[in-house]
């Protein structure tokens, strides 16, 4: 009330006499001075009883009613005053504030604009007009108002504060922070400026300064829930999730109905891997506001991470019903249904998804799209759309200089230094690097999973650094301090990846390899490692990076152990006789068209069965139903679960032929099958992910198992299943090639990879811009 009360005193009306309306107004004003609002209201009402058209009495009564929280009751009096005195800036100003209090931003803006039009030197009016326009999303009008106000009163702390808010909205945090600092120079106790300055500093990557600013806001106002909430957001950005939880809890204790604090509390719990608690936090937010879209979205993500896909779908669909254009949620819901092999909406969803992608909409994250889209041009466009979330950043230190060591320092960055396909492929490469020429450093930022593979990798690197608690910027700064020459991102756009590290340019040379099968679509990745099978020369325009052509693409670990366990058919639920096809790819890679082909194959091979990996319980009834719809008995699908890795590899020996998926091929699973002696049949397309298995098969000299059309793929599957001699010949060649071909020759692959790194360094040291590199040895 203080600011309005001070404003109103400037307009106190001189009076004379003892029984006129003006005398009653004088008495009301005196009571107002003493803070006795209700008594003042009575005096103004008596004045209007004597003269219903007394404009000053209408203004005074409207003012005091608004100050008493009765804006709706104030409106008729203020509207009457504006009719009686159209040139009254007071009447229009108070009408604007009352309308704002009632949630009518359009009316508020109209009357505030009238007030400053009548009195252009009315700085307070410009301030409030800016606020109303900003809250209404009319940012150009808000900027005009704040600039006009500052021209009138350049020493107004509030006007500088609102200018800072505009800069923050315009994604200019440095300018926003400067405006807030002007506010604080004029009003050192402006808690809101300290709070928003904290946000601006956070967005500039100045996390410690942001915390200090928010702490000052909280000291000024210990009950400042928004500042406590923002402090939690900064701590989350610093990956101090336990501290963030404390801040969100404090914000909730101040304001129990603070939905955003409850939602962000859930996000912090998700980052800590406490999924059940996160879901409870989102449920509590939704109990307060059943239309809170973010809570539904993140509730879905928590269920997804916990492999509870039906519950995730329900949450996503509730969010989409409330807001159909939540960024990337349409695709995430579709990806989740693919995890379940729930295809009832597949065709219309795919058509809609493709349309959205062509329009450049935020439709699906790139990794999920690879299982649905085979057009490499469209996939590059999608990557570029997704990458806008992580624009290129800058650091104070110079990234253009490489380390001074005689050895090339290679940094490998991954969330998957554990029992994960990336590590299954790369472990031996890390061990085999030539330490006379290369220093190899691992930057681990995944969840805390201390397993057998993690321990092996800790020993494989020259240095293995746990950077989970560091921000992207801090990891990039550490990389520069260590003199990393070449930064290799092993995650791309996969789960828990940290693309922001490379947006800060962690090293003068940056490349993407193995974890994500496609272009990153950003300027700060210089190279993408591939081979001539995966990216033919004519496909180079579909990639933003320059291509490093290795002799073969996929690293492999020749130390992978296969157990001696012999699985009987009965043990696996397989018939005693009959040909066994199998596919152990993740279920989201199985599209309806791939499944159509498989069912046609089973239909042409009597007695055959298909052994599949059941990633989650929903897959089994869904695929059994789909088989029956295609005229195949559900019992001809046999499902296998997770096993220890050595046993998992041994299980491949129970099958006769691996059938690959399209458009997202087998990668690690193809190598696993071949290592176990099982031939793999694949269908090659044009996009990166649809050519990986072809590359793997070429590397083991079995390119005859690569089909280029669906009909050829099906015909070859049937031929191999019904011509035992030919399949046996392939099995024999596979057994011979396993020991001699490139695919499992880890030392040979490592030397090729090192040759690629040396060529990258040579280009860099010669001042040559990154260009395509071909390694022949």
From TrEMBL:
Segments annotated as TPR repeats: 21-54, 55-88, 157-190, 191-224, 225-258, 259-292, 293-326
Residues annotated as domain O-GlcNAc transferase C-terminal: 399-552, 566-752
Enzyme Commission number: 2.4.1.255
Pathway per the UniProt entry: Protein modification; protein glycosylation
Any coiled-coil regions, as ranges: none
Keyword Glycosyltransferase included in the entry's annotation: yes
Pfam families: Glyco_transf_41, TPR_11, TPR_16, TPR_19, TPR_9
Swiss-Prot/TrEMBL keywords: Glycosyltransferase, Repeat, TPR repeat, Transferase
GO molecular function annotations of the record: protein O-acetylglucosaminyltransferase activity
Transferase keyword on record: yes
Family: Belongs to the glycosyltransferase 41 family. O-GlcNAc transferase subfamily.
Protein name: protein O-GlcNAc transferase
Species of provenance: Parasulfuritortus cantonensis
